[in-house]
Design the sequence.
């Protein structure tokens, strides 16, 4: 065994592969070299014997080589216990290490964790300003701009059609029944098909599936336009009889497919594409991208509804529908081209696998569903989503969000559009009403930030809900006080609804942040899609009631039910805010107002 020490020199070595000539007696002294690992002069190293102290555990995690350069080495012949002192062949060379240079800078052998901690503290890190600048810079800015343009083209057509079809159908018959039936079956298809389509998209390439869904949505819109134009050319005795015609059945199916494709495209854009383009580890850039997408959607709603409202006030419905069809056909190749450009400018980031094979195909999920087990896979997805949704820690905030979907009357939706059309209101005014409601959403993106700074995130949500409930209470009271035969009370009624959208959209923005904070990231997509299904279920229930009470004279009753849903949402949220659990306190411990 060789035991050694070095005097008055510096070392540069690695351990565990060390060899010294056994009979060499002296190595000449030269200039000392730099060191990488330093040991105190009082520590003895046994290179062949097993480690006997606790510090030697740090050597288990790495393997080093040993070389000694430019060192004073002196050997002393020492006999072992059972060998003769005169037997030179059996003696063991002993090397004594001593260093006067290392005494002032000696470092003990570090344990594994301590060594890593000390090593990391010497690495250069970005300053706070540099980190903020990096977090605010998108990972693929050029691709993100092309993505914005694609969303602008698609949302403009979708928002125009969302206003066009209920207006055109409401001109056919003086009843809310056709619009309510279409809305009911559309929501029913989303409830059933939403989780299944989401699962299929998770296992499909991004760009081809996105282009395919855009083509399906455009085809369904064109088919709906053809059916409504055909309906305007065929006279019908009553609204109930029109429901029995083949054109209406085709219209319902096409409308359901169009809405389901739109929901799938929206989820893909907001939950997947924008995250990849902005960067998952760049929160400021992602927040700005989310805000831009929200404003694009609202601005498209303003432009689409206003444009079709102006056209409908000057031309007949068939001409306006033909214009909408031309816009649909021209926008499809534009969206496809911008989608391809987005992927090219982002260096093919959209072609990457969505997750590893072990993540995508777990034992619980099973294989990709085929034609034989689509129903079974869909039922399992719905069951799992409902269980996780009920067990989420911020369930009251989500329930308040869902209850707002019961409000299908006091909102710029299909029923309100049909009601105002049948009241004989000018289409340009109806389009302006929808546009102003969307503008309140744009204003809410700025006001919500001020509310959060002043009241905290949770109290800001309560302020938005209470503000909406108060204004809608006044609006319903005005409507119930007497028939809105004159234009002034009707316009005041609509103005109150427009202002109430400010509170609704404020809670929509703040509520999204509450849900993002309280829901684990591993379950965000599952719980989010399930929440959309639950909200669609709530909306379909109200549309079912509207099917029964389809006469325009029952609009006041439907408005009262919508008001009660908003009041109930405010009560649930405020009650949760006043009686939080310990888990909820820990989740929102950063909120100084909570």
Sequence:
């Amino acid at each position: 065994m060789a035991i050694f020490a070095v005097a008055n020199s510096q070392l540069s070595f690695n351990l565990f592969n060390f060899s010294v000539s056994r009979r060499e007696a002296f190595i000449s002294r030269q200039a000392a070299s730099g060191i990488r690992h330093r040991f105190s002069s009082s520590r003895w190293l046994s290179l062949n014997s097993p480690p006997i102290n606790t510090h030697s555990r740090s050597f288990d995690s790495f393997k080093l080589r040993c070389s000694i350069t430019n060192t004073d080495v002196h050997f002393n012949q020492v006999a072992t216990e059972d060998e003769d002192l005169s037997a030179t062949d059996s003696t063991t060379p002993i090397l004594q290490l001593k260093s006067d240079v290392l005494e002032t800078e000696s470092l003990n052998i570090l344990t594994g964790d301590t060594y890593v901690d000390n090593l990391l503290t010497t690495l250069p890190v970005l300053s706070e300003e540099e980190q903020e600048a990096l977090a605010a810079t998108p990972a693929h800015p050029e691709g993100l701009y092309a993505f914005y343009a694609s969303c602008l083209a698609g949302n403009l057509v979708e928002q125009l059609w969302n206003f066009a079809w209920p207006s055109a159908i409401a001109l056919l018959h003086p009843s809310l029944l056709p619009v309510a039936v279409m809305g009911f079956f559309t929501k029913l298809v989303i409830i059933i098909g939403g989780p299944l389509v989401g699962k299929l998209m998770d296992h499909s390439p991004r760009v081809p599936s996105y282009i395919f869904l855009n083509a399906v949505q455009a085809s369904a819109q064109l088919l709906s336009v053809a059916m409504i134009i055909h309906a305007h050319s065929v006279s019908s005795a009553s609204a109930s009889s029109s429901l029995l015609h083949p054109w209406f059945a085709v219209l319902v199916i096409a409308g359901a497919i169009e809405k389901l494709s739109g929901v799938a495209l929206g989820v893909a854009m907001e939950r997947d594409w924008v995250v990849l383009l902005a960067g998952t580890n760049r929160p400021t850039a992602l927040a700005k991208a989310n805000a831009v997408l929200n404003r694009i959607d609202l601005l498209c709603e303003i432009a689409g509804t206003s444009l079709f409202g102006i056209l409908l006030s000057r031309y007949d419905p068939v001409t306006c529908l033909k214009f909408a069809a031309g816009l649909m056909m021209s926008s499809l190749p534009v969206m496809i081209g911008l989608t391809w450009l987005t992927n090219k400018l982002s260096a093919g980031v959209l072609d990457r696998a969505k997750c590893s094979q072990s993540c995508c195909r777990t034992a619980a999920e099973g294989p990709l569903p085929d034609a034989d087990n689509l129903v079974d896979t869909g039922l399992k997805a719905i069951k799992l989503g409902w269980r996780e949704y009920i067990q989420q820690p911020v369930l009251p905030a989500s329930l308040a969000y869902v209850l707002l979907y019961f409000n299908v009357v006091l909102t710029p939706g299909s029923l309100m559009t049909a009601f105002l059309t049948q009241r004989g209101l000018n289409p340009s005014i109806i389009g302006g009403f929808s546009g102003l409601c969307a503008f309140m959403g744009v204003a809410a993106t700025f006001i919500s930030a001020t509310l959060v700074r002043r009241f905290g995130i949770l109290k800001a949500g309560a302020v938005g809900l209470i503000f909406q409930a108060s204004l809608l209470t006044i609006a319903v009271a005005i409507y119930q006080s007497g028939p809105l035969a004159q234009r002034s009370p009707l316009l005041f009624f609509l103005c109150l609804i427009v202002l109430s959208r400010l509170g609704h959209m404020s809670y929509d923005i703040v509520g999204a942040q509450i849900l993002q904070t309280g829901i684990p990231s591993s379950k965000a997509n599952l719980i989010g899609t399930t929440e959309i299904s639950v909200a669609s279920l709530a909306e379909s229930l109200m549309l079912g009631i509207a099917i029964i009470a389809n006469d325009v004279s029952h609009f006041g009753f439907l408005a009262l039910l919508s008001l009660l849903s908003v009041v109930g949402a405010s009560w649930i949220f405020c009650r949760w805010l006043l009686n939080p659990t310990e888990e909820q306190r820990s989740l929102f411990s950063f909120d100084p107002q909570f």
In short: Residues 1-123, 356-369 have pLDDT under 50 and may be disordered.
